[in-house]
Design a protein that fits this description.
Blueprint lengths: L12 H10 L5 H11 L14 H10 L6 E8 L4 E7 L5 E8 L4 E4 L3 E3 L14 E4 L2 H18 L7 E4 L9 H12 L11 E5 L3 H8 L6 E5 L5 H7 L8 H15 L3 E7 L7 H14 L6 E7 L13 H13 L4 E3 L13 H8 L11
Parallel strand pairs: 4-7, 7-8, 8-9, 9-10, 10-11, 11-12
Antiparallel strand pairs: 1-2, 2-3, 3-4, 5-6
Helix pairs in contact: 1-2, 4-5, 6-8, 9-10
Bound molecules: iron/sulfur cluster.
Iron/sulfur cluster binds next to loops.
Length: 366
């Protein structure tokens, strides 16, 4: 019989209840399955030992956990950074990165295979958009990370979930937001909304929509330049949503939600990291936002992408940029790097995978 759900990770609890009703099973079986998936992190119906064998067999034969298949896991930072490559049914690949620290663990999840936004410094942007991920695909990546973490340190749980992997989440808003709600569901994975962060290239309608959502997840906006000329060169989306519109939407978002926004700024040597540009950015943000505590600038040393004519800013230039911003009273930190040796920048491993067969990926460790 055809099930009304695409995969188990695509199903809400009511979806599961409908499926179980169709199968003539009591309603409470759906809750058992939901807990097995999201509390016990079971990835095989045969391991749901509180279910009758016949039901486990039916789940195995008539449903799938997810439509994405784990191809490879690479390790860096002495095993504390792990990058998974998943293959989608259309052979596109997506990446998920787990970063484990002494007292916390962050997973970076993809929302699209490839990306249509075309940022010039981004490996994913060179792929173009290959496919939107389903809600279940997004949930499945998070569950992989939760299971992987359990194997590394059973006492540690995921503390942060960032939608900063491949793709632009607001370009796949409905499926992405359904994943946020699923992962937040107190009857299931129960992941706190305030520990989730979405990063956008600056899609203004998405920022406005997020401001009206009832879950208080965090917002990070990719800025990367203090003026329209440079930003349009680096990020074509700026032609559609220029800085003035973006900052208007950000101001509205802050005033509606009273939540702090992060501005992300990837530093590229000689392109957007000069002292003049740092001061221009400082003046822009100081003028635009009267309440400095409600935004923050995150400076990101760029992970080199082979084949691009761009260079990574030297440490001295990064620190000089930070000092210049601080002179304007702009709150600003430099992101700690993880996973450089496993090509952990967004889209790099997937780009390499597309150049070879997914089964024969060979990424050098340095
Ligand atoms: S930086 Fe983000 S939005 Fe830009 S091309 Fe890469 S994945 Fe897309």
């Amino acid at each position: 019989m055809t099930t009304p759900i695409a995969t188990l990770y695509d199903a809400t609890l009511p979806d599961l209840e409908a499926l179980l009703a169709e199968w003539g099973q009591p309603r409470y079986r759906a809750r058992q399955i939901y807990r097995q998936l999201y509390v016990n992190l079971v990835d095989d119906p045969q391991h749901m030992t509180d279910l009758p064998r016949a039901l486990r067999d039916r789940l195995s034969s008539d449903t799938a956990l997810t439509s994405i298949a784990l191809v490879q896991v690479q390790q860096g930072d002495q095993g504390m950074t792990r990058k998974a490559l998943f293959r989608l049914p259309n052979d596109a690949v997506v990446e998920t990165v787990l970063m484990v620290y002494a007292d916390r663990a962050t997973v970076c999840v993809s929302t699209q295979a490839g990306c249509a936004m075309g940022c010039v410094f981004c490996a994913t942007g060179t792929l173009g958009l290959l496919r939107n991920l389903s809600t279940g695909d997004i949930v499945a990546q998070t569950m992989w990370a939760a299971r992987e973490l359990r194997g590394i340190n059973p006492d540690l749980h995921l503390t942060n979930l960032v939608f900063m992997g491949m793709g632009e989440p607001f370009a796949n808003y409905n499926r992405w937001w359904a994943a946020v709600e699923r992962l937040h569901d107190p009857q299931g994975f129960d992941f706190g909304a305030r520990r989730m962060t979405v990063s956008t290239v600056g899609l203004v309608p998405g920022i406005r929509r997020l401001a009206d959502e009832d879950l208080p997840i965090n917002l990070a906006i990719s800025l990367h330049a203090p003026n329209d000329t440079l930003r349009s060169e680096l990020m074509p989306v700026n032609n559609r949503y220029p800085l003035a519109d973006l900052l208007d939407a950000t101001r509205e978002y802050i005033s509606k939600t009273r939540r702090r926004v992060s501005f992300e700024y990837v530093l590229l040597q000689g392109r957007n990291d000069t002292p003049e540009l740092a001061h221009e950015l400082g003046r822009l943000l100081r003028d635009e936002h009267a309440e400095p505590l409600l935004y923050h600038v995150n400076l990101i040393p760029w992970n080199p992408v082979p084949g691009t004519p761009l260079d990574r800013s030297s440490r001295n230039r990064v620190l000089a940029f930070q000092r210049a911003l601080q002179e304007h009273g702009v709150p600003c930190t430099v992101r700690v790097e993880r996973g450089v040796e496993i090509a952990a920048a967004c889209g790099q491993l997937a780009g390499q995978a597309r150049q070879s067969q997914p089964s024969s990926i060979n990424v050098e460790f340095v």
